[in-house]
Structures are given as C-alpha cells and as structure tokens.
Write a structure and sequence with these properties.
The protein has about 160 residues and is of the alpha+beta class. The protein is built from 5 helices and 7 strands, in the order ββαββαβααβαβ.
Length: about 160
C-alpha cells in the first residue's frame, strides 16, 4: 500500500471527477501526490484561486499490485521528456469536455504552472519539443498521479 495525498480547499469524502478542472497537465480528473508537502502547496493554491475554504490534505491508500491489472490503461512518464511535454500541451490546451486520451491513470512529473507562454511559443513553432520540455520542468521536480475514470477511482481507499 502506498499513501497518496490530495490537496484542496476542503476535505474530500467522495471523489467526483466532474469537479476537476479542465486544462491541467494530464486532463480533467483527480490528482494526487506521494509528497504530502506538495499536496499542501496545492491545497493553499486552491484556496487562493477559489477565494475561500481551508487548505486540506486528504489521504488515500492505493494497493500498488492493482496497477498490474491488464484491463487498466496506464501511462507512465518516469521523467521529463519531449513525449511528456507534448502530452501536457495537448491536455493543457484542451478546453472541451472530451479527454484527449483514454488512460485510466497517468503518472508523471508536474509541469511548472506558468506554462502559457511556452505553449504558445511551441504552437507557433518558435521552439522545439525538447526546448519546451526543458521550459516546462518544475522548479522542484515532483510527480503526480492522475485518476481519470471511475474504474481508477475505485482503486483508492480513503485513509
């Protein structure tokens, strides 16, 4: 079992995938981190962005052996790469209700939140995917888990 943390402006009792914001690194879904401090930073950011609530970290348990289920569609980015950067751009620029991928779970690095100018430069072909990847790296590299389907959410147990 591993502990994963979700930072928000309130405690999470029931995960509702429709409450996730669009245009995030891996799309609209439920995000967690194995780093409790990173989750608290996200909780504080959420309070500031929403103008209310209390920074709260909710802890979930995940049985890692369940990730071997062959019916789960999982994408893993073990480090920053051009492939990761292109995936982030697709998700960050998607403002529709339709995901740009069909993964149940995505694991990978968190992009720096100030990515707008870099994405525009890439879309205008002013920089390459490799330069984009370097510019999207977070100042303090941290990894995140994205749960994007009810099937994936069912694997999480609230601690």
């Amino acid at each position: 079992m591993i502990k994963l943390f979700h930072g928000s402006n309130m405690a999470i009792d029931v995960i509702d995938l429709t409450k996730g914001r669009r245009g995030k690194d891996f799309g609209q879904g439920f995000y967690l981190s194995a780093d409790k401090n990173q989750a608290m930073q996200m909780a504080q950011t959420t309070v500031e962005r929403n103008g209310g609530g209390v920074p709260t970290v909710t802890t979930f348990l995940l049985d890692e052996t369940q990730l071997n289920d062959p019916t789960l569609h999982i994408c893993r980015f073990e480090d920053y790469s051009a492939e990761w950067a292109l995936f982030v751009v697709k998700n960050r620029t998607n403002r529709t209700e339709i995901q740009v991928h069909d993964y149940d779970i995505v694991y990978g690095p968190i992009a720096d939140d100030r990515v707008g100018p870099q994405i525009r430069r890439f879309q205008n072909k002013w920089i390459s995917a490799d330069v984009l990847m370097e510019e999207l790296k977070n100042v303090r590299p941290t990894f995140q888990y994205f749960f994007g389907t009810e099937k994936a959410i069912a694997l999480l147990k609230k601690e």
